[in-house]
Amino acid sequence: MPIAINLDALLRERGMTLTELSERVGLTLANLSILKTGKAKAVRFSTLETLCRVLECQPGDILGFSEEE
After folding, report:
1. Contact by Cβ (8 Å): 38, 5
2. What CDD domains does the record point to (predicted)?
């Protein structure tokens, strides 16, 4: 898929675990894991907004695009 999810890098930069992010954004660990691994079919804008608030980043820091798979 040409859309890349960069949660691993953001979490590393912030010294945060996926479990901690899950607690802060109010999403289950399973749902965040699906998003992190790129298996999610969609992301709600409200979820993206919450992730950006908690991670103090822009949507483009979370999502990336590459024509090469």
Report:
1. yes
2. HTH_XRE
Summarize the confidence of residues 29-53 as an average pLDDT: 95
**Contact between residue 57 and residue 7 where contact means Cβ atoms under 8 Å apart:** no
Mean pLDDT of 36-41: 92
Look at residue 2 in the predicted model and tell me its pLDDT. Answer: 87
Helix, strand, coil fractions of the chain, as percent rounded to 5: 55, 10, 35
- As a whole number of angstroms, the distance between CA 19 and CA 26 comes to 10
Distance between CA atoms of 40 and 57, rounded to whole angstroms?
20
